[in-house]
Amino acid sequence: MKKNKYDQTIVNDAFKGSITKLNPKEQLKNPIIFVVYLGVIATSIIWLGEFVKGEIAFFGFEFWVFVWLFFTVIFANFAEALAEGRGKAQANALRSGKKSSSANKLLEDGTIEQISSEALKIGDIVIVNAGETIPSDGEVIKGIASIDESAITGESAPVIRESGGDRNSVTGGTKVLTDQITISITKNPGETFLDRMISLIEGAKRQKSPNEIALNILLIGLTLIFIIVTITLKPMSLHVGADISIISLIALLVCLIPTTIGGLLSAIGIAGMDRLLKKNVLAMSGKAIEAAGDVNVLLLDKTGTITFGNRMASDFMAIDEQNRQELAFAALITSLSDDTPEGKSTVTFAKNSYGVHEPEHLEEATFIPFSAYTRMSGLDIEGIEYRKGAVDAIENFVASRGGVFPKKAKDMCNQIGKKGGTPLAVAKGAEVLGIIYLKDIIKPNIREKFAEFRGMGIKTVMVTGDNPITAAAIAAEAGVDDFVAEATPDTKIELIRNYQKEGFTVAMSGDGTNDAPALAQADVGLAMNSGTQAAKEAANMVDMDSSPTKLIEVVEVGKELLMTRGALTTFSLANDIAKYFAIIPALFVVAFPQMSVLNVMNLATPQSAILSAVIFNALVIIALVPLAIKGVGYKALGADVVLRQNLLIYGLGGIVAPFVGIKLLDMLIVALHLV
Fold first, then answer.
1. With contact defined as beta carbons under 8 Å apart, do 145 and 179 qualify?
2. Where are the alpha helices (DSSP H) in 322-363?
3. What is the pLDDT of residues 448-482, one digit of tens each?
4. Which of 166, 301, 511, 545 is flagged as catalytic?
5. CATH number corresponding to 294-308+442-544
6. What backbone torsions phi and psi does residue 577 show, to the nearest 5 degrees?
7. N or C: which end of the chain has fewer CB within 10 A?
8. Catalytic site includes residue 301
9. Are β-strands 169-170 and 281-283 bridged in parallel, bridged antiparallel, or unpaired?
10. Which class would CATH give 317-434?
11. Annotated domain spans of the chain
């Protein structure tokens, strides 16, 4: 059963992790929480020392400050452990599905040796037959086959992998459904794509982004300033006759340093990668996700991104107009054994547009399933051979039956090609009945999606190898801002460089070896898992679903990550205002009774005021854990609108919430007689 973010097992493991992370080495990784950690140690020593001397009660003010500082550290550890736990649950699920299998290794003398998949190394040649699992990552060097990649991508639809092209990359753990392929192994054990996924999911190689590093420096700087201020308060208090206790100063320090964002920062970064993983996108680092959040130019392939990846039947063009119904019937029955999207769309189009249906007694027919080798499908019924497929394949089929591919059919194919469509020919024995027009269909709501990007300030550019006329028509229908027709690999990389010179952050997607330079050049390079090893190595993200539309989701997750970090930082810093009004008067009211005017919350006693602030400081971390992990939702409203909303919700909320929370806690502390 798949674990969700609130799965009880994950929460239980996170509680355990919050304890194991009390190791000083672990605490040092988070400087702000490490300061709180030192405060816990100091308050425990002072509390126990004064209790042993008989100067204080065991469950007095000092004890409760120590307890809640300890909980502050625990809650910060819990936030990070919970974020890590969600990733580890995914990693464990992948690891459990990763099983050692046997491999048919091809030896130099041409014989086959069965060995364990874990014994394979780079350069080994293996043969994988239908029904067998691909033992390790590799590239197809011979053959073509249908592959089930659902174990990796979660998608049930099989894909075609073949030698000699950009679709030759295969992943260990996937399954060959049809035919036989010969694979050259490209990864050693422990270095496969699945291994890398597991490692990255667990956070072992998570790199901090420049934005996160900069924020860490800012938070550490603020912490150092407050440490200095707190240290100077002790001699100053002695000078004015207000002897402030060390525990009160520690409480002040912990409340004033950016504890909230410090406790949640790691969780935000880990959760950002986790959100992308839930969309089946593997980010190599937090830097890549944040770069996605800053993207202002998107380069999108036409096919598979703006249009459906598989072209769909839109017209039946008969050689003889009087035989159009016969063409529709032939197109239907020849597509019954074609499970490709094109085949299914032909069946749907024939039924909906021409009202044709399957004939009776099909059990007497011999079906010819679609094959990647023949590129045809069809059936033989009552001695008649019906075939549908690629134009050259049907031309060869007709010729083998003594027929001739008519000039009119070739003219139809040329006409379709000029429009950017794909022709499929339909034959009845040696006679060509006509052509099926497959065309690009604009994806639903894609125009609205591009309008959203425009609202974000992101320019969309369609890149296609189509001729300018076809490209212009599709670009206008889709609503992209610009397009580049007849694009080559050199065109792509030059386009990216030009945008970057102008100060833009550029994202693009690709799957071929010829895309690798451009993927490496782009600020966000999204490689398809179905693509070549070169493309995946060059990119800083890999889409396991091999769907270029993921680029849109990647940008949204990147912006969510930046907004979440900004929102929680704003909230954390705004919290300090209420803490000033709670703690500062409490520290100095004995020496300066006039400072009681600053006690705007009318807190009961100095000790209850300080303890209320400390408790709120701890509880707010755990209260914000769901937001840190889920992230702040992003809407394309423009930077100024988003900033105003951010300040209104998290800035104003960060000011108001502590006043309310601290006052309620003060009332509870007094009612329970804790101090």
1. yes
2. 324-335, 341-354
3. 888 877 877 789 998 877 778 778 878 888 889 99
4. 301
5. 3.40.50.1000
6. -60, -50
7. N
8. yes
9. unpaired
10. alpha beta
11. 8-90+202-277+556-672, 121-188, 294-308+442-544, 317-434
